[in-house]
Amino acid sequence: MGLVVQKYGGSSVADAEGIKRVAKRIVEAKKNGHQVVVVVSAMGDTTDELIDLAEQVSPMPAGREFDMLLTAGERISMALLAMAIKNLGHEAQSFTGSQAGVITDSVHNKARIIDVTPGRIRTALDEGNIAIVAGFQGVSQDKKDITTLGRGGSDTTAVALAAALHAEVCEIYTDVDGVFTADPRVVKKARKIDWISSEDMLELAASGSKVLLHRCVEYARRYDIPIHVRSSFSGLPGTWVSNEKPESQGDQQVEHAIISGVAHDVSEAKITVVGVPDKPGEAAVIFRAIADAEINIDMIVQNVSAASTGLTDISFTLPKTEGRKAIDALERAKGGIGFESLRYDDQIGKISLVGAGMKTNPGVTASFFQALSDAGVNIELISTSEIRISVVTRQDDVPGAVRAVHSAFGLDSDSDEAVVYGGTGR
User: Whole-angstrom Cα distance, residue 118 to residue 124?
Assistant: First the structure.
């Protein structure tokens, strides 16, 4: 039996009963002969409560102190879980991100992992202990300050540790039974996927599927770490995410399903830069201003310029949380761009159809847009890749659009409805 990394989300350790239930599952893995490393999130809504508290004290808290505050949630979880495991007669040691050797860059609130040096974790395992690590956090390489990895960063912590420790598998425990063909909170007949390629999962995660963080899947694909997404509330097998199909999932040569799933995202906003001079370099200036503000953008559309004015409009989507910062950055750059005005819209939603099989199957695009048309959904932006089609529409239209597309591609389950055990899906 090899080394296993298990990650438990906030809904799994939301209260004392949840922590004791998780402790029993961890001990069971230890009894089965595995070395076990556990990565744990903050209890329930602790992180949100700490953010609210910080905002009451300061409208713009300093990044360093904000990170110091937010990491308290995971430290509480790891200590309580270690106590629960010891109460079951097994030795456990808890470690903060910095103690576990998670080294990051210096960007507070959304740091990226540079390296993992798990010397203390390895020592704990060699001594026969269960190692418990606080997720979502690390220590900056230069200043040795505490940093956080951004929301959902515990997934990335788990995969990074699995890679550094050469684990057999990284098990991500959440409040649903695996990865589904759509969010079971929106599509009651969503079907659980037994295996999905890292490529397809990466597109689903980037398109709004919340069961796995995009950075986590990217890390796992790079280091070839298989992920098993499971529920901590049931003993059912979950979804395997890997570069190659496991032998347990059948013939390796079987072609991809045409469609893996439908994802949606209502956390984005749209900015339209109106009246941009249609000449070389203008788009570069716009997106340089956005890049300098450290804002990630998603979809981009430029209209055909009006012949009479020589002006065009450029629209792009970005996280709602970055909207104010983006508007301010563009206003500062207005003199160098010469646009007429800015429009901001945060009542949009994105629907994405994902599947590696679509690149060799004609008619997928037509069926997708026909389903949206039949559902009365108006499309504002379109973006495509080899294995994904995404559209932006009104936020209120998203649930109906997701259900219509899901049914149109035959993804509805004939069996019992998908079970959501609690929490928000993380």
Answer: 10
Which structural domain, as residue segments, surrounds residue 11?
Answer: 3-247
Give residue-wise pLDDT tens across range 337-395. Answer: 889 999 999 999 999 999 988 888 888 999 999 999 999 999 999 998 889 999 999 99
Handedness of CA 201, 237, 154, 210 (dihedral sign): positive
Give the largest Cα separation in the chain, rounded.
Answer: 80
Q: CB–CB of 387/355 below 8 Å?
A: yes
Residues pairing with 265 in the sheet: 350
Q: 177 CB contacts (<8 Å, ≥6 apart)? A: 192, 230, 231, 234, 236, 238, 418, 419
Helices (H), 136-281: 153-164, 198-206, 214-223
Which amino acid, one-letter code, is at 396?
D
- Give the CATH number of the domain where residue 217 resides: 3.40.1160.10
* Threshold 0.85, pTM exceeds: yes
Among 74, 38, 67, 58, smallest CA distance to 144 is for: 67
| Sign of CA pseudo-dihedral 227, 247, 167, 130 | positive
> How far is the C-alpha of 354 from the C-alpha of 100, rounded, in Å?
36
Residue 240 included in any domain: yes
| Paired tokens of 55 | 């905002």
Tell me, yes or no, whether 360 lies in a domain.
no
Q: How far is CA 55 from CA 44, 48, 52, 151, 293, in A?
A: 19, 11, 5, 17, 22
Residue at 34: amino acid letter: H
Q: How far apart are CA 24 and CA 29, in angstroms?
A: 9
DSSP 259-271: --EEEEE-SEEEE
Q: Is residue 347 part of a domain?
A: no
Asked if 222 contacts 206 with a C-beta cutoff of 8 angstroms, the reply is no
User: How many distinct structural domains can be found in the chain?
Assistant: 1
- At 346 the pLDDT is 95
Q: pLDDT by residue (tens digit) across 243-279?
A: 888 766 555 444 456 899 999 999 999 999 999 998 8
Residue 233 lies in a domain: yes
User: How far apart are the C-alpha atoms of 211 and 32, rounded to whole Å?
Assistant: 27
d(C-alpha 92, C-alpha 40), whole Å = 13
pLDDT of residue 257: 66
| CA distances to 139, 152, 321 from 68, in Å | 11, 17, 21
